[in-house]
Amino acid sequence: MTIDYTSLHTATFYLMYACLALAIFVCVERLIYYVQTQKHARELEGAVTGHAGELHLLPRELTERDSLPAQALRTMMADIPNTRSPEDLQHLSSAVFLSTKSRLQKNLWVLDTIVTAAPLLGLLGTILGIIETFTTLAEHGISDPKGVSAGIGTALLATAMGITVALIGLVFLNHFHDRVDRISEHLKVLLLRSAIRREAA
């Protein structure tokens, strides 16, 4: 059975193009989501901090938004009447916080997988390209040194592309982890302050 190394080599390039497209999509989607979520969290945190009355009297344009901080605050406000002690409030705010953190990390595993897989795909493409070049040499001899050099150059391009995709993904992945930490801090402060505000009321 003969293996078509040319097709396999080409397939690795298409896989890397797909990884790059998917990484760009996840990066754009998460970037927009994190910017909006962090903005809403800051606004709600400021409103809860500066509001002296009941939490249900907060501006409706803030509490009724379809954003993660507003949903977390609504969950907190709905469950607060069932709490009977300060410890219950702490447990409630911790539970709401943990549920929001898992949603903040949505799709980051895709980017993490691409960062890990892209260099391996590039290395696989290089190996297949070199095998293809040596197979051609074995069949036709070294009649065209330029063709051999071009084949090896194309093979090495796969590694370069894989590393490039991984580096781009790694930069955004680290940035998104930092965003998740910042938003988590805002949400933690928001939930704790709303719990304290409710307890004082």
From TrEMBL:
InterPro entries linked to this entry: ExbB/TolQ_transport (IPR050790), MotA_ExbB_proton_chnl (IPR002898)
Localization: Cell membrane; Membrane
The organism's place on the tree of life at top rank: Bacteria
Residue ranges of domain MotA/TolQ/ExbB proton channel in the record: 71-187
Gene Ontology BP terms: protein import
UniProt membrane topology term: Multi-pass membrane protein
Keywords linked to the UniProt accession: Cell membrane, Membrane, Protein transport, Transmembrane, Transmembrane helix, Transport
GO cellular component: plasma membrane
Pfam families: MotA_ExbB (PF01618)
Similarity comment text for this entry: Belongs to the exbB/tolQ family.
Protein name stated in the entry: Outer membrane transport energization protein ExbB
Organism: Paludibacterium purpuratum
